[in-house]
Amino acid sequence: MKRILITGALGQIGSELTLKLRDLYGADNVIATDIKKNDSEAAHSGPFEILDVTDANRMVEIAKKHKVDTVMHLAALLSATAESKPVFAWNLNMGGMLNALETAREVKAQFFTPSSIGAFGPSTPKDNTPQDTIMRPTTMYGVNKVAGELLADYYYHKFGVDTRGLRFPGLISYVAMPGGGTTDYAVEIYYEAVKNRRYTSYIDKGTYMDMMYMPDALNAIVDLMEADPSKLIHRNSFNVSSMSFDPEEIAASIAKYIPGFKISYNVDPARQNIADSWPNSIDSAAAKEEWGFKFDYDLDKMTQDMIDKLRQKMQ
Ligand code: AKB
Fold this sequence. Notes:
It contains twelve helices and twelve strands. The strands form three sheets. It has a seven-stranded parallel beta sheet with strand order 3-2-1-4-5-6-10, with helices on both faces. Helix 2 (41-44) links the parallel strand 2 and strand 3 (48-50). It has helices at residues 14-25, 41-44, 56-65, 79-84, 86-107, 140-159, 185-196, 214-226, 247-257, 269-277, 285-291, 299-314, and strands at residues 4-7, 30-34, 48-50, 70-73, 110-116, 163-168, 170-172, 198-201, 209-213, 238-239, 243-245, 262-265. The site of 2-amino-3-ketobutyric acid has 13 residues, from loops.
């Protein structure tokens, strides 16, 4: 039976991952932590501890107190926020990562952390970006992600920590809003479509980025963590994506379910710059071959589910 410590458990991924893991492994076996408590289900459906991930001692103390055998480190600043506060981002993203890896080493735990399509940069091949390729990101977030991938591989080779990671695309969900990401437009657009039948996009038409619906992302985390280690050639981190679209294409998909939906543009140069430095679409072949990555949702199936769920939520 697993005993899992999650950092950033009340964030965009954590709010849903915590509940899924509690369903799979038992509520008491999933220890949610975050810098503040809120009134979400993730904070109240099982053990919860306040944790600032830059506090190394406290992280180890919580891991020992709850006898965890798995650390899932989700706490991090996303790309647009990291770009506006680069020094803070370095300290939080890299400090948190080092502390989480050290915790995993000390308590002999398996380790997961998300990387991102943000780990790639303008000199990376843009289409069908391979698993192993040029990684020279031009954002602080990307620098943190590449350094984090290397550090996680280092902990595997040097100390034998069972580290695993996924390069996530933009994640879309109706549960918790992302905060400070470049791909957030693809979440906001659904909220605005259901409320106002229109959306003003800060990302320009023609800008393609990879995306994935949250249920597929959560399944990918569980499948990777349960994968047979002898099959893993890569570890930190695997390309995974289930769709790639630009704002026009997501708007056209929404218009199939919300007739009259209109998109307009007011491009934010800061976030557009970040988006322009990322791939159009990445190749998930290594994840498929090494641990059977699969997904259920394409753009239209996701759109239909997002709209249904948001209508119920906003009633
Ligand atoms: C962001 O936009 O910063 C994230 C990501 C793709 O890593 N959603």
